[in-house]
Amino acid sequence: MMAAVAHDLRTPLFALRGYLDGLEQGIADSPEKRAKYLAVCKEKSAQLDRLVEDLFTFAKTEYPEMKLSETIIDLNLVLKNSIESLSPQAEQKDISIIADHLTNDCNIKGDSHLLERAMNNLIDNAVRHTPRHGEIIIECNRDETCVIFTIQDTGEGFSAEDLQKVFDPLYRGEASRNRSTGGAGLGLTISQRIIRQHGGELVVGNHSEGGALLRGWIPILVLNA
Q1: Helix axis angle, 187-197 relative to 31-61, nearest 10°?
Q2: In this structure, are residues 20 and 39 in contact, taking their beta carbons and an 8 Å threshold?
Q3: How many helices (H) and strands (E) does the chain have?
Q4: Which fold has domain 71-219?
Q5: With bands split at pLDDT 50, 70 and 90, how would you rate the model's confidence at 183?
Q6: 118-132, pLDDT tens digit by residue?
């Protein structure tokens, strides 16, 4: 595992260093080239940030006995924050994020930072695997015992192998789930662990009309650290 993680970190780091060397040596000799080099440097630094954050959160979720924060959280607000943070990436691909069915009073007890990290991973995964001009539909409601959320996209969905292995650490599925997307193959693993630490569960499948469907639930005002 450490070798795979080291490779994931080295790939954007080498690219970042190469483009910075190019800027230093004057290879980018026009405003357009300099702007392009700087854009790549920003992209690679953001990729490194995601990898480090994934590794840090993964390490934290290795300890299920870890005591979580016990604040009362409206999961809809967590989802809205995640949607807002992922909207720029979605807009770059002309992807519409539809969140018209977020029921009020989806209160749970838990760690807002970890839950937002979990939702960021799920929505980021949907954005990366949804084609241009696609849609991501996010819903959240509650019943007498649980808050239930779903994230559906219009991508290719999960293969049979994906459905068996998608929560395995470092697993990558079809060609689009590779190192060039910036992930370490830990995002869905981390999300499932966080949801489970809050006494819930996260499952994946394919929607009847096509595309991936992620469904999770967390007990209302129950903390099961």
Answers
A1: 40
A2: no
A3: 6, 7
A4: Heat Shock Protein 90 (3.30.565)
A5: low
A6: 999 999 889 989 999
